Amino acid sequence: MGTLKLVLLGILFISFMVFVAFFGRLPALRNTPIARLHRLIWIHLPNAIVAADERLSSGKITRSLSRFGQHLMNDRHPTVVIFFLAIMGVSEIMFLPQVWSNISRFTQLTVALTVIAPYTFLYLSCAADPGYISSQNLKHHMRLYPYDYALFHPGRECRTCRIPKPARSKHCSICKRCVAKADHHCIFINSCVGYGNQHYFLLLLLTTSILTTYGGFLGTSILGSVLKQRNPQWSFWPSKGMTFNKWLGILGWGIQRNVNLGATTLLSTLISPLVWGLCIYSFWLVYCGTTTNESLKWSELQEDMRDGYAFRRYLPASASKDSRPGSTRWPVDPEQIILVTSDAQPPVENPSTPGKGEWERVRQLRDVENLYDLGLWENLLDIFLPSYEFGNVGKKDEPVVERQRSKRRGKSAKRGPF
Q1: Of 7, 16, 113, 292, which one's alpha carbon is 20 to 30 angstroms from that of 391?
Q2: Residue 279 annotated in active site
Q3: Tens of pLDDT along 182-229?
Q4: CA–CA gap between residue 202 and residue 28 (Å, rounded)
Q5: Angle 77-113-381 (CA atoms, 0-180°, nearest 5)?
Q6: pLDDT computed for residue 369 by the predictor
């Protein structure tokens, strides 16, 4: 039982640390113990190690490790992809032979499909162009989304690529390219998640979540039937007549009886909540009509609003179209411009600054419309149907723009979890 407890604790510890690494920087967890632990691990502890090494070796060790770490974290390489494939492959090699003869033909077919799907979408996520922007395709990417004049303003240029920045784009320091509708750089696919591969990435998350859940459920069912044959009163929820130690002892016997099945079932069961958490968060961002990159920007803008540094004024429709001549894809145009000042004073009047009327201080995000949120269904269409023309959808007697405006009236705009 000592070995089993160590395995359980080890898997729980790894799962928790992965959760902290992935979710510790989320705006929603900013003032929680998770965020403080993330800062301790990734900021305070490395700084303490660097300070100690400066005294012991004048920084030679940490500089060497830093170069290696910079390569791992800031350069593209397939290390994590290979590690991800190894975990899935080894787990399936350990698991499938143990259950294959105990399941029906139909279940075998569903298992095969469930196993194949994540590999398919992993390949497509890695191989697809995430939406790299170049001078050759700049016009196309400029047409995809309008500037919202809140997070994204026209006239900005990427200082590295030396090309104009389309709305919703971001320069990736790892890919060394600008990416259209940049969400984040994902080490599990060795690429960015952007306009060109976001649909594959979402399907990868969904199918991986289903795989781990299905594996845990199938393994638990087979393991439970074996345990009930030996102890008919045993169930996965301890009964009143059974102590926890006895229940754990029976479970430990079952796992040790078939280590391959027990270990992989345990791993699938414990890792499923983490994978589902990442999957649900990604689909929540889709529902909100935003990206990981934009949710961080909204969080920063929210802080500026609370401090009184954000101002807005009316933006005429004619001015909002100047930055993307000829564009007809997106059905909604911005109605206001938001600027942040450094002195908490209204922006200085400038002929080049668009908008009309007096500047008004804005304090809350719910007073700002998210231009890129068209509703769940059309947010999904934007992701899964590249260059989808929204103007071709909707009621014949009601323009899409008006339909989307009316959907927003009377409710707060969604920004994502922070």
Answers
A1: 292
A2: no
A3: 999 998 999 999 999 999 999 999 999 999 999 999 988 888 787 777
A4: 21
A5: 70
A6: 86
Distance of CA 364 to the CA centre of its chain: 25
Q: Token match 């497509």: residue?
A: 124
Q: Single out the residue of 156, 181, 166, 173 nearest to residue 135, CA to CA.
A: 166
Q: Which residues pair with 340 in a beta bridge?
A: 310
**Helix, strand or coil, per DSSP, at residue 25:** coil
Phi and psi at residue 311, to the nearest 5°: -135, 155
Alpha-helical segments (H) within 231-291: 244-257, 259-288
- How confident is the model over 284-308, as pLDDT tens digits? 999 999 999 999 999 999 999 999 9
Q: What is the pLDDT of residues 144-168, one digit of tens each?
A: 999 999 999 998 999 999 999 999 9
- Among 126, 178, 186, 288, the active-site one is 186
pLDDT in tens, 70-95: 656 556 778 888 988 998 999 999 99
What pLDDT sits at residue 397?
38
Ordered DSSP codes for 293-315: HHHHHHHHHHHHHHTT-EEEEE-
Distances in Å between the Cα of 414 and the Cα atoms of 90, 142, 202, 304, 408 are 41, 24, 20, 18, 10
| 157/301 Cα distance (integer angstroms) | 20
> 3-class secondary structure for 179-248?
ECCCCEEECCCCEEECCCCHHHHHHHHHHHHHHHHHHHHHHHHHHHHHHHHHCCCCCCCCCCCCCHHHHH
For residues 282 and 295, is the Cβ–Cβ distance under 8 A? no
State the greatest distance between any 2 C-alpha atoms of the chain, in Å, as a whole number: 83
Measured distance CA(27)–CA(284) in Å, rounded: 14
- The structure tokens listed for 317 are 């429709």
